[in-house]
Each structure stands twice: as C-alpha cells, then as structure tokens.
Write a structure and sequence with these properties.
Elements lengths: L5 E14 L2 E14 L3 E5 L6 H8 L7 E6 L4 H6 L3 E4 L11 H11 L4 H14 L15 H13 L5 E5 L7 H18 L2 E6 L2 H7 L2 E6 L4 E7 L14 H17 L5
Parallel strand pairs: 3-7, 3-8, 5-6, 6-7
Antiparallel strand pairs: 1-2, 1-4, 8-9
Family: Belongs to the ABC transporter superfamily.
GO molecular function, one term: ATP binding
Pfam families: ABC_tran
Length: 262
C-alpha cells in the first residue's frame, strides 16, 4: 500500500504495443515514485516512452504488466475522480470559444454552477497572469499566452496532479524561459505535483526536484537524479557550477542509455 505522500507509484511497469511488424516495447520494467509536491521531469530521445508513461498515468493507455497507482487508485479510478489536469504539446483551445469559455469547459462538464465557474476562471487567469484576457479568442493571443490559457484550464478544477506533455517545446527560447519562470512561481503558489515531459536538458534541470532519464528500445528508466538546487531559482542559476553539474549528469545518462547501433 502506498504511503499517503505518494501521488504516482509504478512498480515493474511495462507496456507492449502489438503492431503488424511485431510487438513494440514502449515501456519496460519502470519503477518510479512521485511524491506529493514533487516536480518531476521526464527526459530522453524521441520514442523513449516519456509521453506513453504520462498517458498511462492519465489512463489514456493501458499498461501490459506491472502495477501503477495514482493517488492510491488505479489510473482509471483516478481519471473518474478527476485527480489530474493534462496540458498537451499544443494548447488545444477551441477557436470558437473565448479564453474564459475554454477554461470553463471542464467545469461545465463537471456540473459547477455559473458563479463557481466564474470564480475559478478569474482565479486561474490570475495564476497564469492572463487577467483581462478572458474575453479574447485564442487567435488573438500569442503562442505563449495560449499555452498559459491551456494551463489555466488544467488548473480550473483544482486537481492536485498536473501532467504536462512538452508544453513549451514549440515556443521560442525567450518565451520558453519566461514560461519556465512563470511555471515555477505557479508551482510554488499552488503546491501541485507536476509530471513534465521535455527534450531540453536546461529546462529539465531548471524546473525539477527530480529528473527521470529514459532510453529508447525499450523505454526504460536509466537514471533518477534528485536536484540539489534551491526552490527559488532565478534564470541565471543556469550558469552556476551546481546547475551545470546536474546538467552534465543528465547528458551522460542520456548518452549511456542511447544505442547508436542501427
């Protein structure tokens, strides 16, 4: 049985996709604990199972063997209990709905009254620094603002767990840096548990309390790095020896776990 502080617990977790060319081992023997309030980044090359693992947590994919619990429940029950919010690679906002109506969508589905919807919309817009933009349509906002609106939608029903699948990957470096700072402030303000997929070593090191390094063929965890950086992290912390040392370990873990054989 999980300790109360364990939000995600995976034991010997594997997932095999059956294809016309034979089985594809997407995840192999993954053991991982995500504690309450952790910021865990998953990093590895394309095809290493980062997004697949996130989708297993969200009950969007079914694991083949092993065990996984989310808030001490099966992923299916956690989904039904609305235990998590999910932020995709693209903002995935409905273009015919205003920003506040996009944020309201899960609240409408869950049956919240209009007053409570409005309270939550205003609260989450403030959290992501979009106060005053609720009446705008997605096409009237920049890419970075759209992604912040997507985060607001995931936060609106106040789930403890936030699953983020490379949400800033398509943005330019300056916007990405800004959103990384904003996300750390958001995490500090809400004490959410965050599972975050990225291809960027600096992003993983800057954001995380724990970095999970994964390798392809089959997708497995090759290293789990616990960050020694302080919780308060200005952007220039990325130039410190401590930051560079963690980044070096991540890079070496990626090299060690990657086969270059054809």
């Amino acid at each position: 049985m999980n300790a109360p502080s364990s939000v995600v617990s995976a034991k010997d977790l594997s997932l095999v996709f059956q294809t016309s060319d034979g089985p594809v081992h997407a995840l192999s023997n993954v053991d991982l604990e995500v504690g309450k309030g952790d910021f865990v980044s998953f990093i590895g090359p394309s095809g290493c199972g980062k997004t697949t693992f996130l989708r297993v947590i969200a009950d969007l994919e079914k694991h083949t063997s092993g065990d996984i619990t989310v808030n001490a429940m099966t992923p299916e029950n956690a989904r039904k209990d609305r235990s998590y919010g999910y932020v995709f690679q693209a903002a995935a906002l409905y273009p015919w709905r205003t920003i506040e109506k996009n944020i309201a969508l899960p609240l409408e589905i869950m049956g919240y009254g209009r007053e409570e919807q409005q309270r939550r919309i205003e609260e989450t817009l403030k959290l992501v620094n979009l106060t005053g933009f609720g009446k705008k349509f997605p096409w009237q906002l920049s890419g970075g603002m759209q992604q912040r609106a997507s985060i607001a939608r995931a936060l609106a029903f106040d789930a403890d767990l936030l699953l983020m699948d490379e949400p800033f990957g398509a943005l330019d470096e300056i916007v990405r840096d800004h959103l990384n700072e904003q996300l750390l402030k958001l995490w500090a303000a809400t004490n959410k548990t965050i599972c975050f997929v990225t291809h960027s070593i600096p992003e993983a090191v800057y954001l995380s309390t724990k970095i999970v390094v994964m390798s392809p063929r089959p997708g497995r965890v090759t290293d789990i790095i616990h960050s020694t950086l302080p919780k308060e992290r200005p952007l220039d912390i990325r130039e410190t020896p401590e930051f560079l040392e963690i980044a070096h370990r991540v890079r070496e873990g990626l090299k060690a776990g990657h086969s270059y054989d054809e």
